[in-house]
Amino acid sequence: METLKYIDPEIFEAIREEIERQQSNVELIASENYCSTAVLQAQGSILTNKYAEGYPDKRWYAGCGKIDIVEKLTVDRAKEIFGAEHANVQPHSGSQANMAVLFSSLTPGNKILSMDLSHGGHLTHGFKKNFSGQLYKKITYGVDKETEYIDYAELRALAKKNNPDLIIAGASSYPREIDFVKFKEIADEVGALFLADIAHIAGLIVAGLHQDPVPYADFVTTSTHKTLRGPRGGLILCKSKYASKIDQYIFPGIQGGPLMHVIAAKAVAFKEAKTKEFRECQSQTIKNAKSLANELKEKGYKIVSGGTDNHLFLVDLTNKNISGREAQETLEKAGIVLNRNMIPFDKRTANDPSGIRIGTPSVTTRGMKEPEMSQIANWIDLALNGYKDNNTLKTIKSEVAELCATFPIYNVDTALVD
Ligand code: DSN
Question: Where is this site: Plays an important role in substrate specificity (predicted)?
Answer without folding.
Answer: 225
